[in-house]
Structures are given as structure tokens and as C-alpha cells.
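Pipeline run #58 for the internal structure catalog. This entry was flagged by the ingest filter as a single-chain record with no existing model, so it goes straight to prediction. Upstream metadata was stripped on purpose; only the residue string is passed forward. Reviewer on rotation: M.T. Logging verbosity set to normal.
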Amino acid sequence: MFGCLAVYVRDKIVFVLRDKRDQTEDNGVWLVTTTEHHQSLRREFPNLRSIQVWGKKVTGWQVLPAAAENFEEAALRACELVLAGDPRIGKVPGARRASRSGAGKVEKSGERAKPH
């Protein structure tokens, strides 16, 4: 993923690990989250911020910068949250696109789609 390492837990992408020689300000652990969780996650991770390499002011994905003084402790804490099933971290890739195409209509009716 973008020359980085994606970390999945079951069907969710939870982290992206980045260590590049150029644009080093975004090196570290990227937390896959949404803007609604930024404030609560920043209480636990004061160094957490939006990824800069994409050129947007605010992104859903946030980075624990490798250059931060407490990087190792923060990364381990993020792992603990994922292992505990914290709903603020992780997304099922393509879930938003699938719901726009109508694939989510079966679930809304109470039925579950059968695996192929």
C-alpha cells in the first residue's frame, strides 16, 4: 500500500506502517480511523495528527509520527486498543463504495448475504 505495509485484523485495515527516506514527516504508524474519532484518540495520543503527504488539511487517517518522543509507547498502546476491539480504529476496505453500489441493501433488510 503506497510503498508501505498495511496491517489487517480479520477484514479490517487498522494500521499502515511507513518508513520512507523522503517526506519523513509522515513516517510512523498510520491509524485507520474517521474524523469523528479524532478528538477522543488525541486525548490518548497527543502527538496524533493528520497525514500531510496527501496535501489535505484533515484526513480520516491519522499518524503517530516516528519522530515523536513517545513513539514506541504510543504505537504499543494503539496495538492494545486494536486487540481490545476499539471501534475507533479500523475500517473494512471498500465498505463505503459497496454501499453506494447497492451491495448493502441485503443487510438492511435483515438478511445476510451468503458467501460465494
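catalog note: The longest helix spans residues 71-83.
catalog note: The two ends are 27 Å apart (CA to CA).
status: ready for reviewer M.T.
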